[in-house]
Amino acid sequence: MAAASRAVSERIPLVDLVLEVRDARIPLSSEYDQLRNFPSSSKRIIVLNKMDLANRLEIKEWMRYFEQQNCISFGVNSHNKDNIKECLKFLQAQVKGVKKIDHSSYTATIMLVGIPNVGKSALANSLHQIGRISAAEKGKLKHATVSPIPGETRDISSLKIGSHPNVYVLDTPGILPPDILDVVVCSKLALTGAIKDCLVGEKELAQYFLSILNRSDEYKKWEKLSAEENEISTIDQRVGCLGSSELDSRQKRQYPTDHTQDFVVREVRRVLFETISSFPGSLEKEKDLSRLIETQFTALREAFRVASESGEDVENKVAAKLLNLYRTGRLGHYTLDSVPRNIQ
């Protein structure tokens, strides 16, 4: 990261725009610390990526906050083509504003910077693909390396995202400060994938997520699943009356060990709703919260169809599946950072 940090610092003064890509779930905790060494200017734009995983109402508050801080910001989902088209138009307008040139023969460069795993490479690829299609350009598309594991981008790469004027985007490695002293910030970075799971522990991260879920209102959206479970039980009894061949064909279409299947996700949501809503303790007390989380791990083991052998390995399997569902938005939408109220 030290070498990448020097390379990025050398190029920042040379580019036309700097897009600081942040994770919309942690708009403050995912701040790119290195930009503090450069004076703020119109060159810097804060891009909140992974909007599809964040709480939309809270993100609107963050956008207003950045506006009050005289920071240009834009929310994006790198995997939504219409959203990427809007982002391209926005960037082209910003480039014209910076260049202040009417003709289209110039070349502009935009640098993407940020901490690991905020989606810089995914955003660069999407801008490149949509930009080339919009410009009706031929030729082989390039691809920046995309991975859910932080630290996969090792070099600075250039991708063309527009013509007339020519606009290039530089994808850079994710960089974290050498020391993160704030435990809460570190926890948020780890939960959202900016820090490798093995450095913190999957079980600990899953427990942290459950502590957030249990104190939120997200689980209330799954109330109907509990009522539906009773209806499904009745239907299952009727299905038992069907011929064995038809019953077998239905079962073959389901893969209980695949936690990403809809019927497994519904079961996980139902279990989480029922364990939270029926819990008699106080979630403001740490001991009670820990007791609830322990109960949830036991219930989730069955929901995820994890074999009942004893040992820490079982809990790690449950934790890994739970984290995957959270990080893909299957268990609700969360913005973990709160807008500073004294400035809002």
From TrEMBL:
Source superkingdom: Eukaryota
Pfam families hit by this protein = MMR_HSR1
Q: Which SUPFAM superfamilies match?
A: P-loop containing nucleoside triphosphate hydrolases (SSF52540)
Q: Which PROSITE patterns match?
A: G_CP (PS51721)
Where would I find the CP-type G domain in this sequence?
5-178
Q: Which UniProt keywords apply?
A: GTP-binding, Nucleotide-binding
Q: Would the keyword DNA damage turn up in this protein's UniProt record?
A: no
PANTHER family registered for this protein in UniProt: DAR GTPASE 2, MITOCHONDRIAL, MITOCHONDRIAL RIBOSOME-ASSOCIATED GTPASE 1
Q: What is this protein called?
A: CP-type G domain-containing protein
